[in-house]
Amino acid sequence: MAEAQTVVVVDDDPAIRTAMGRVLRAGGFAPVSFGSAEEFLAASPREAPVCFVLDIHLGAMSGLELQRLLKVGGSTVPVIVMTAHDEPRLRDEAARNGCMAYLLKESDADVLLGLLRSLPNRG
Predict the structure, then answer these.
(1) Do β-strands 101-104 and 79-83 pair in parallel, antiparallel, or remain unpaired?
(2) Residue 34 region, left (φ>0) first, then alpha (ψ -120 to 50), else beta?
(3) Interhelix angle for 14-26 vs 109-117, to 10°?
(4) Which of 76, 36, 30 is nearest to 55 (CA)?
(5) Residue 5: what pLDDT?
(6) Quick check: 67 and 81 in contact, CB under 8 A?
(7) Hey, which bits of 1-123 come out as E strands?
(8) Number of structural domains, the chain?
(9) Which residue segment(s) compose the domain that 39 sits in?
(10) Which residues share a beta bridge with 34?
(11) In the chain, count of helices (H) and strands (E)?
């Protein structure tokens, strides 16, 4: 059986991180969660994730700023932006930065899992 692929979740809400962890584990993925962009950047990644799931409103550094930093740093790992606020300006910025999807937090878990399962290196 293939080892579960890592999905990095960056969200400042502990309840969302817990819920996302449950969904991802149930979907066969290995979630690694961080409460802020800074916490993620300070961590030493053990293995490359198959995808980043980033909240937009994180505090000091937004998820969109983290997405830009990852891109500038040469990351080719797909990014899914999840937010509680559907703001066209933020949706456009996320798309310009190359996100693979912009989901509302109320989205069905199957939508997120379907996107993750569609990644070419899945399996």
Answers:
(1) parallel
(2) beta
(3) 60
(4) 36
(5) 92
(6) yes
(7) 6-10, 30-34, 51-55, 79-83, 101-104
(8) 1
(9) 6-117
(10) 10
(11) 5, 5
* Residue 123 falls inside a structural domain: no
Q: What is the pLDDT of residue 122?
A: 42
Q: Radius of gyration over alpha carbons of the chain, in Å?
A: 13
51 vs 59: which has the higher pLDDT: 51
- Give the span between the Cα atoms of 68 and 56, in whole angstroms: 12
Closest CA to 80 of 6, 5, 3, 10: 10
Q: Residue 11 — φ and ψ, nearest 5°?
A: -150, 135
- CATH at residue 106: 3.40.50.2300
Interatomic CA distance for residues 13 and 1, integer angstroms:
33
Establish if 122 belongs to a structural domain: no
Examine residue 80 and state whether it is found in any structural domain, yes or no: yes
In this prediction, what percent of the chain has a pLDDT beyond 90?
76
Lowest mean pLDDT among 8-12, 42-46, 119-123: 119-123
Q: Name the pTM for this structure.
A: 0.92
Q: Which amino acid is at 27?
A: G
